Amino acid sequence: MTSTSFAHEQLIVRRGRRSGVTTAVAIHSTTLGPAIGGCRLKPYPSLDSAIEDVLRLSSAMTLKCAAAEVAFGGGKSVIAAPETLTPQRRYEAMLDHADLVAELGGTYLAGPDIGTGTQDMDLLSPNAFCATTGAGSSSFPTALGVLAALRAARPDLAGLSAVIIGFGSVGTYLAEHLAAAGVQVTVSDVDPHGRERASGFTWIDPDRALSADCDILIPAATGGVLTPDTVPALRAPLVVGPANNQLSDDGVADRLAAAGVTWIPDFIASAGGIIHTLAREVDGVPHEEALNRVNAIECRTATILAAARHSGATPLAEALALANARLGSPFEPGGGGWGATTSGTRCP
Ligand SMILES: NC(=O)c1ccc[n+]([C@@H]2O[C@H](COP(=O)([O-])OP(=O)(O)OC[C@H]3O[C@@H](n4cnc5c(N)ncnc54)[C@H](O)[C@@H]3O)[C@@H](O)[C@H]2O)c1
């Protein structure tokens, strides 16, 4: 999901001097403030695919921040790890990456992502969020944000059925909350251990999950799951989840609408983690107030869905209009300079 009307500001790719591992930082936009985005560590089939990933994910972060009304821009970083990485070489790769991020002088601030965690953020500190002394895991607020987006489409969840693709950190929170709300929850994961952890929930094999007969389909694993090929197989009338870049391309939003599927844009539904982290670590607000800001995703999603119903456009088109309007007339930071966030001011 990458539709913004401008090119990346910066892409830096470097081979680490200690580790020999290639790492990259992409800064898509600093229009609203320093670029933020997770640091992803994983093996890639090629350098090109790592660069493609960091470019796509960083532009999605621009949209996520703009729509979430925070005074930050979009960035992302990747560490293209070899298939086997000893703990020592992994540590050296993180230090190499920390050097690269530090050279950017605060223009890019990292956070945990696939393959990295809070202790890695300690190494990137002060150019990172969610270090061990920070706001903690973003998975719970991310799940809360998905639930807020879901409520905008289906206020009454009791008695509905949901299939969650990806029983990881966010997927597990979602499964527990939805079950508590009276939803019949089915989960799926490619990891064989996922099935053991999923006792208490109905299980479905990953290759059947996307086309499962249910009220709500929740992509909570990888991106790119909604494609021209997979849309015809969908049976759920509503798709909403935390996975970034769920569409293979923006045109898939039109296919979803034509198939009668309501798709809530990922960059709206998955913003709970950054909203909570910034509220806690930048604005210093209490946990409860930070969660209130996450819950504003319900109002934002309701506004987008109502606009789409009114205009006949897709929710994606309306969400892009919202984000791009904000990028076109940037928030003027108050006395706090960059770092002051506005989340919740337009959607209390
Ligand atoms: N954690 C956050 O705060 C956060 C914030 C925003 C977006 N996201 C996105 O949400 C998604 C889930 O995040 P997470 O933190 O729970 O990640 P995670 O790594 O904890 O969980 C993902 C799970 O998906 C499983 N999986 C991978 N491919 C699969 C497939 N094809 N079918 C079924 N299962 C598959 C993995 O085995 C894993 O258990 C990711 O796309 C992530 O980028 C997460």
TrEMBL record:
<keyword id="KW-0520">NAD</keyword>
<dbReference type="Pfam" id="PF02812">
    <property type="entry name" value="ELFV_dehydrog_N"/>
</dbReference>
<dbReference type="InterPro" id="IPR016211">
    <property type="entry name" value="Glu/Phe/Leu/Val/Trp_DH_bac/arc"/>
</dbReference>
<dbReference type="Pfam" id="PF00208">
    <property type="entry name" value="ELFV_dehydrog"/>
</dbReference>
<dbReference type="GO" id="GO:0016639">
    <property type="term" value="F:oxidoreductase activity, acting on the CH-NH2 group of donors, NAD or NADP as acceptor"/>
</dbReference>
<dbReference type="InterPro" id="IPR006096">
    <property type="entry name" value="Glu/Leu/Phe/Val/Trp_DH_C"/>
</dbReference>
<dbReference type="InterPro" id="IPR036291">
    <property type="entry name" value="NAD(P)-bd_dom_sf"/>
</dbReference>
<keyword id="KW-0560">Oxidoreductase</keyword>
<dbReference type="GO" id="GO:0000166">
    <property type="term" value="F:nucleotide binding"/>
</dbReference>
<feature type="active site" description="Proton donor/acceptor">
    <location>
        <position position="76"/>
    </location>
</feature>
<dbReference type="GO" id="GO:0006520">
    <property type="term" value="P:amino acid metabolic process"/>
</dbReference>
<feature type="binding site">
    <location>
        <begin position="166"/>
        <end position="171"/>
    </location>
    <ligand>
        <name>NAD(+)</name>
    </ligand>
</feature>
<protein>
    <submittedName>
        <fullName>Leucine dehydrogenase</fullName>
    </submittedName>
</protein>
<keyword id="KW-0547">Nucleotide-binding</keyword>
<feature type="domain" description="S-adenosyl-L-homocysteine hydrolase NAD binding">
    <location>
        <begin position="138"/>
        <end position="282"/>
    </location>
</feature>
<dbReference type="InterPro" id="IPR015878">
    <property type="entry name" value="Ado_hCys_hydrolase_NAD-bd"/>
</dbReference>
<comment type="similarity">
    <text>Belongs to the Glu/Leu/Phe/Val dehydrogenases family.</text>
</comment>
<dbReference type="InterPro" id="IPR046346">
    <property type="entry name" value="Aminoacid_DH-like_N_sf"/>
</dbReference>
<feature type="domain" description="Glutamate/phenylalanine/leucine/valine/L-tryptophan dehydrogenase C-terminal">
    <location>
        <begin position="139"/>
        <end position="335"/>
    </location>
</feature>
<dbReference type="InterPro" id="IPR006097">
    <property type="entry name" value="Glu/Leu/Phe/Val/Trp_DH_dimer"/>
</dbReference>
<dbReference type="InterPro" id="IPR006095">
    <property type="entry name" value="Glu/Leu/Phe/Val/Trp_DH"/>
</dbReference>
